[in-house]
Each structure stands twice: as C-alpha cells, then as structure tokens.
Amino acid sequence: MSLLEEKTLSTEKIFSGKVIDLQVDEVKLPNGKTAKRELIKHPGAVAIIAVTAENKIVMVEQFRKALEKTIIEIPAGKLEKGEKPADCARRELEEETGYDCESMVLLNSFYTSPGFADEIVHVYLAKGLKKKENAAGLDEDEFVNLMELSLDEAQQAIKEKRICDAKTVFAVQYIQLQEVLKS
C-alpha cells in the first residue's frame, strides 16, 4: 500500500439508479485510522466538439434539474454497458443534433469530480460534419433545442453563465486555442 492509499474495509450499497449508483465505503487511512467515503459510481460519458463548415459550434440547450435552469452544452451522453466511447460519441452526436461525421478523434478524457465520483468524460472532436436525413431521435425523456454558435457567441454565453459546465467551457477554449494557433 502506498503512503497515500486508502484500503477499502467494507462497502455499503445505498442506491442503484438509471444513471448512477451510490455507495458508502469504510476505509483504512494511511495513518491507520478509519473513515467513511460517500461515492458515486458512473459508467462514464462522452462529449463531442462539433464545428460546422461555417465555423459554428454545434450545441444543445436543455434544462438541467440539478441546476434548476436551462444551459447550453456541447452534445454529450452516458456510455451504455459495453459500449465503446467512440461509438457512443457518434450515437450521441446523431441523436442530439442530427449530424454524422467522417471521423471522431479522441482529444482527452477527464474525471469530473474525483473527490466523490468515478465519472470519466471522453471528449471527441467530430470532423467532416454532415446532416443525416433519417437521424436517430432523442431519448423519450430528453428535450433539447439545437443551436449553432460562433466562437464569439459561445464566449459571450460563458460570460452570461448560459454555458457553465466544464466540458463545454473546455470545448470553447479548445476552439479558441485552435483559432489562435491558426493566426
């Protein structure tokens, strides 16, 4: 055991849901004492940075109950059991936006809140966007407005806190950096 590692002594499953599971672990700390850790288990997710030929960022606007407000986000979604992240990214892009793409390139993966959750988000860049005629639709409990924002409009939406989630701020900053590198 490393000097910082916590050894799990027991796990109590509290809740098992559609999106997350909640458990409480009793752990042995490096100093020999014990503590409780409340943990969220999540299957992982994908997020897609998609830019049209007109240099518009494809986004969706949707109500987020946890925040009690409507926000603007890049397309994203939860991994299904056994699903590869790249396949999930293509599926979510089509379902949420009606777009398909020539290629899907993994840019990075990050943990959203490692202090209490194991959720990992895989961020993809969709290249060669094209609208699909018979695109798969949204899940029955999903309601979104499709939006296409310029970089300036996205930056303004961040200032107005209409874009306020990490994956979308990351996406806008990624696109901004690409613009800077071009000049």
From TrEMBL:
It comes from the Bacteria. Its cofactor is Mg(2+). InterPro entries: NDP_pyrophosphatase, NUDIX_hydrolase-like_dom_sf, NUDIX_hydrolase_CS, NUDIX_hydrolase_dom. PROSITE patterns: NUDIX, NUDIX_BOX. Pfam families: NUDIX. Coiled coil: none annotated. Its EC number is 3.6.-.-. It is an enzyme of class 3 (hydrolase). The keyword Hydrolase applies. Residues 40-171 form the Nudix hydrolase domain. The keyword Chaperone does not apply. Keywords: Hydrolase. GO terms for molecular function: hydrolase activity. PANTHER family: NUDIX HYDROLASE DOMAIN-CONTAINING PROTEIN, UDP/ADP-SUGAR PYROPHOSPHATASE. Homodimer. This is NUDIX hydrolase. It comes from Niallia oryzisoli.
